[in-house]
# Entry
Amino acid sequence: MQEAKLETEFDPTILAFCCNWCSYAGADLAGTSRFEYPTNVKVIRVMCSGRLDPTFVLSAFRWGADGVLITGCHPGDCHYVQGNYMMERRFGFLKEALGHLGIEPERLRLEWVSAGEGEKFAALVRDATQKIKLLGPNPLKKV
Amino acid sequence: MEEEEPRIGVFICHCGVNIGGVVNVPEVVKYARTLPNVTYAEDNIYTCSEAGLTSIKNAVKEHKLNRVIVASCTPRTHEPLFRSACREAGLNHYLFEMANIREQCSWVHAHQHERATEKAKGLVRMSTARAAWLEPQDEPELEIKDTALVIGGGISGMTSALSIANQGFKVYLVEKEPELGGNLRRLHKLYPTMQDTSEILDPAIKAVNANDKIETLTSTTVSDVTGYVGNFKVTLAKGTEKRDVDVGTIIVACGAVNYTPPKGLHQYGVFPHVVTQLEMDELLRNGKIEKPPERVVMIQCVGARKGEIRAVDLAGFPKSDTARLLSKILKAKKEEGWPYCSKICCMNAIKNAILVKDKFPETDVIILYGDVRVYKEYEDFYSRARECQVKFIKHIEEVTPEITQESEGKLTVTAYDALSGQEISLPCDWVVLSTPMIPHKEEVILARMLKIPISSDGFLMEAHVKLRPVDTQMDGIFLAGVASGPKDVPESIVSAKAAAARAGTLMANKKMRTEALTSVVDEEECFGCGLCEEICTYGAHYLENGKSHTIAALCRGCGACAAECPRRAIAMQHFTDDQVLAQIKAGLTEEL
Amino acid sequence: MTEKAVLVVGGGISGIQASLDLASRGYKVYIVEKSPSIGGRMAQLDKTFPTMDCSMCILAPKMIDCSHHHNVKLLTYSELKSVKGAPGNFAVTILRKPRYVDETKCTGCGNCADHCPVEVPNEFDENLGMRKAIYMPFPQAVPRAMTIDKANCIDCGLCQKMCQAGAVDLKQEPQETELNVGAIVVSVGFDLFDSSQIPTYGYGRHKNVVTALELERLLCASGPTGGHLIRPSDGKIPRKIAFIQCVGSRDRRFGTTYCSSICCKYSVKDAVLIKEHEPNTMVSIFYIDLRAFGKGFQEFVNRAKSEYGVRFVRSSPGEIMENPATRNLSIWYEDTVAGRIENQEFDLVVLCPALVPRSDAKELAKVLGAEVDEYGFFKAANILTSPVDTTVPGIFVCGYALGPKTGDIPDSIMQGSATAARVAETLERV
# Structure
């Protein structure tokens, strides 16, 4: 695999928030199954996607994230019953807020990944990295 | 916030070659030493070994560390071990943090060594940034009630209930049907002893009924579960009647069902003499087959091992057949089914084959298979079948056997013999389909109620498929029997006893410590809007004198209140805003 | 009646699980282990199927729990000598063999071994690597202490001179300890069928014919080659590897007519591991029936075929011949599906032998008064309803000591926990 980065090729920095019970375990499963994916994503563990204060997402973009992935349990499966629903509500508002700030809303993604979906997590990382690459760097970085 | 400066120790694990073979660990150690607040850094071959743990403890003492970071595997397996090492070194274990550089780095970037190393550095940087904000915590103690709930009254549920009762605890045994017994009620004989199922079922039911510690509730289902380990509140429903019980542990023994082929698959539901193994078992038991059949053909793996294409070496077959074979294979690719092997169907088919032969010695019995998956000493059972003249034909599974009917009871099975490559035509009276064990549809509802995940094969998921096969991710909830996957009777019984042991250990200890991940309200900032009280699923917030308060025993630590609070007046212990924001910033920039 | 105490004979994963379950609920557990360290077979494995977890990584924390737990006493390098009594009240005699090292003083630094002049084959590495006469069987050993193999020691006393902790005690004598326990758990595991009993496979004569356990040691990072898969004869990397299933299993010649339940699974695992190490290796598995049942296993086999290109040949090979110049092996076999007799050359052949009872299992059974089955494994009181009870009340059995009923590691662990339940039930009533 070619390791050297081309000068012209944009290498995005992406943060992923994973909930302890489902998506973090799913990400671990991707590891034990040895599914390969790009190195652009770093994971931050929280207990529940419902923990994610909108400030976290906005700060991430302010500090230069090219993309933010939010992952949590499938609807109905949240370990804390409703946390993921609350996150979903915030997500709508966040997308709009990003738009107002001049950041493409597609840079923020919300996906449900269960503890048994290692392959899905790997596919998500590959897809997100690819799409954010096409979007180019975070527009705030030019400011 | 602690007054003293953070003194962080970083321990980077090679994990043999699991990490070290991809990530340049010494380089990461060097990097760690440059990070703010890092007093000490070293690498270990296996940090989880006795040597690694001793090294951590010694470093804490020698360098007066007040924060420890281990960069290694996922915290989901080894965090308790490292936390206990910290405690032994005199450090509150909430001052410990892990960076996952194996499952989420070296194992998924196996061919990108340089980039994996850079990512590992970033993950370590994020952990050190968070660690600087960590604070010591006290863990609340939970009482564990000495009563268990067993969901499911089949052989596994009854075994668990009996074991728990014999260990001295009270048990509620809940069964949705009017009778105890589960799937075994529908089975006639058990392999390899060929004894009647009633020989093991009846004594178990008798023992359950005779045991005064077991309260059996038939025609009853679980309609709601709230609470947490040691303190589950369960609502049971019998018809329209509801009843609440308090239990300390729960064992899920809800069983599984036999897959019924869709109508038309191998002409099931179309030709009357095409049946499943379960149906054949019933026919034999009820004497419904009066005239000795000339031939019975059994087909294995119907609806199992599907979904993946198996490579077929066509080189040895007559060229004239190749084109026809290929088109049949392509048709088979679309066949529905479950991808896994159901483990017990080979033995089950052999058992039924022997039963047929015992009853009708002149009948020709043929089993069409892909692999004969008998195992353990059951190999001898397989030999016995062959000695009874049961024939085993390995067929090309990719080509679905075709079944045609001349008249009722006069069928022909056409398949391809894998060893000769020839098409074979088998006239027979009965076709018996071996189908896998599949999860109940209702299992999803139960899983949601208990908040336990489901594996990709549809069965309930264990905490760790190798090391914790009867635990679930919820403390206090365990799995018994086929609820977690296909098993035969002795394996179900072993798993049921294992679950009973794990539940019994919890209840025997009467108390356990739980995570200190609760919410804390800053009363100065709080202006009493009541949003937290409204959204908390557990009722852990209440308002008094215009301010919100947390009931720590009820708080499960999800953090939704902290995220929703309009004044940012709620802090989540061990997942504070400062801690998470520090991690985010460190993940994006080198400036901290 | 004394406090509730339990004796666990055999410190492998199933014994460890039983011990931790019992210790966690307040019983005092004595683990008697014949070798210098607990860990058993799982410690020798590189990775476990189908999750490909590093075996030692998931085992080590449990081993350490045992050593730290205040209710667990490890009696390693020890053997059970006699048993008398009944459930609730067994009097057992344990022989503590002298390791000539004081466990309480030894720090495991290894200085002694560095200076020891005697090198002998290392049993833990299946005799593929060497160790000294004073040794630690593997780096993560528990207890973390050295042991002197007196049979090979030349009494030079260098180790004692070099030891800075003063832990070497050449005057140690065997000690007999009497214990009173309420129940006994047997978890002594298995041995491998001696593949040299099948002369046509050349094990023991052809250097590049190895057993699967030897392969595990070659693949393991802490093994004799540091995890580099190289051939025993010349250290070259093998490019063509064959696995042969059912060596001694399902075989009437040797009485081991049973299926050992795990060999198909571990060979697919090893094949995938090898392909991950060296993707250009050609790996062929010669099997009779591919017994890939169990959680996630069929899916794992599918990946082995489609993603990793592992080749499966339905055949029980006839003869393995060695080319004396290259030490390559040529296998004569009948491909039953293709219907042809073939000959193919390989650089390395891995035999998957039957798993048989430990050589001293019969002796132990006699000491306990327990029955063994026709294969020599401990007999369950009732294979359907009392699968972990031996024929002696109060004595239970788990793991491969029970025989191939144990499918794999999760089964061993479940059986370990199940014996804990049985012990608790027994001692509650006494």
Remarks:
- Chain C has a mean pLDDT of 92.
